[in-house]
Design goal:
- With 229 residues, the protein is α/β, with parallel strands linked by helices.
- It has two domains: 89 residues, Thiamin pyrophosphokinase, catalytic domain (Rossmann fold); 128 residues, Thiamin pyrophosphokinase, catalytic domain (Rossmann fold, 3-Layer(aba) Sandwich), CATH 3.40.50.10240.
């Protein structure tokens, strides 16, 4: 049993970088919430950002999409371009490795899905791979996706939709959710915790084993952080 319980809180002064992937990105009103935070574009995301009049600080990847676009000539003069041709990792993983080298651990991710389906599924695999060594938060369609490896509690609001998706299996006990779990197992392909609902304004999820993805309403411009009680 994982006995340590962490308080899941949200802070607006810990984001090290915003990482944009080459899929559906949020509108300019979201980017305007963040001032002075480095923006990393994974390959073709740089073009999508430029079309929003947003200049990334770094453009990273094998650059096949970036270099095939005429706008790349202009962006080369505005952003630091980091060409990594090897094909053992995709542009998302290349970008996360770049963050690690910069000692950036708190990363807000835009554009995780909305492109080619297999890219989306592979991106979730990369989230699983890196989430034990980095604090990653996915933003999409007004929601947060947060990888969780420990027992947690957090403040919410009544009737907020809370989803718990196992990666790939998690044994849980919950308090404060409409459909509670009592030392029960969620398993990918068998049973998920999709679209549960907060009954009160304080939720506790005790993780006995495994790991999962927690989905909730976004807290922009704040990012999740796990703190020992």
């Amino acid at each position: 049993m994982k006995e340590n319980v962490y308080k899941l809180t949200f802070k607006d002064d810990i984001i090290d970088a915003i990482l944009c992937l080459d899929a559906v990105l949020p509108g300019n009103e979201v980017f305007s919430l963040f001032k002075g935070i480095p923006i990393i574009a994974a390959d073709g995301a740089s073009i999508k950002l430029y079309e929003k009049s947003i200049i990334p600080n770094y453009i990273i990847g094998d650059l096949d999409t970036f270099l095939s676009n005429p706008l790349s000539d202009k962006l080369k003069t505005l952003s630091e371009v980091i060409y990594i041709p090897e094909q053992e990792t995709n542009d998302f993983e290349k970008s996360l490795n770049f963050c690690i080298k910069k000692d950036w651990k708190n990363i807000l991710i835009f554009g995780l899905h909305g492109g080619v389906l297999e890219h989306t599924l592979n991106n979730w695999s990369i989230i699983k791979k890196f989430s034990r060594i980095m604090n990653l938060c996915i933003y999409d369609e007004e929601r947060y996706g947060i990888p969780v490896h420990n027992s947690i509690n957090f403040d919410t609001k009544k009737d907020e939709i809370i989803s718990i998706i196992p990666q790939y299996i998690a044994k849980l006990t919950t308090k404060g959710l409409q459909w509670k779990l009592e030392n029960e197992t969620l398993e990918f392909g068998i049973r998920e915790g999709f679209r549960n609902r907060a009954k009160v304004d304080y939720i506790e999820i005790i993780l006995h084993s495994g790991e999962y993805l927690l989905f909730m309403d976004n807290r922009l411009p704040k990012m999740p952080v796990f703190e020992m009680k």
